[in-house]
Design brief:
- By secondary structure, this protein is of the alpha/beta class.
- Helix content is 39%, strand content 17%.
- The strands form 4 sheets. The protein has a 6-stranded parallel beta sheet, sandwiched between helices. A two-stranded parallel sheet has the order 6-9. Strands 7-12 form a two-stranded parallel ribbon.
- Helix 2 packs parallel to helix 3 and helix 5 crosses helix 7.
Amino acid sequence: MKILLTGGNGQLGRCLQDRFPADWQISVTTSSDLDIGDAAAVERAVLAFQPDAIINAAAYTAVDKAESEPENSARVNSAGPENLARAARLIGARLVHVSTDYVFDGTAQRPYQETDNTSPVCVYGRTKLEGEKRVQELLPDAVILRTAWVFSEYGSNFVKTMLRLGEQRDALSIVSDQLGCPTYAGDIAQAIIVLLQQSAAGGIYHYCGDQQATWYDFAEQIFIQATQQGRLAKAPQLTAINTEAFPTPAQRPAYSVLDCSKVQHYGVKLSDWQKALSAVVAES
């Protein structure tokens, strides 16, 4: 299988490259060599490589910065997926597009299903939702995979931030009223590979960690692992705070647990994030 991968330098892009089957032919692109917001550039790249499938792991993920840079967020998160879908349609390629739990407003009382109403509360979420819609309009057989709270041994993420702060400070205040599911990027990568191998039907799928947690819970587990492994001599003292005590430019959903039943029909295993966390802390 020939795969064109966008966002090759990101967490998911790096994890995909670690896991692609050896007999797949991969063309890896990054934001520096392929601007997915440039329709002509995307078409040239797709026509030149003629992939069987395109995996779009590229995204503008600076959630707070997006509030002051809505055009940049829209270029990558909305126009980019549209350009990839249009190019994929030209040559009959599959498209796997990665989206986010932030398409929801966070007011649900149960895990979000793929068919639930979307109502994003920040620019990042709105531009990602617009990207989903454009993909579906152009390429109904595209696979759209929503995920959440991504971490890995690569790039910048919550785990890396906590480890860095744990080395610098004796005490930390962590938000405890936002509930979601941490998800290891390596497991997302494996899920995408399985969906392609299984020729999954087009549509929206949810994929995230197997256990819900607050950011406080997540931080607590990070420091348990870090001290057990000798990564930190001592864990900082953690104080649980409400979202209001930690204001940010972008509003975030208070509840973004995803129902992943649909994707499991293809034999995809949910992300055992606590097991993955142990390995990521060891490698970070």
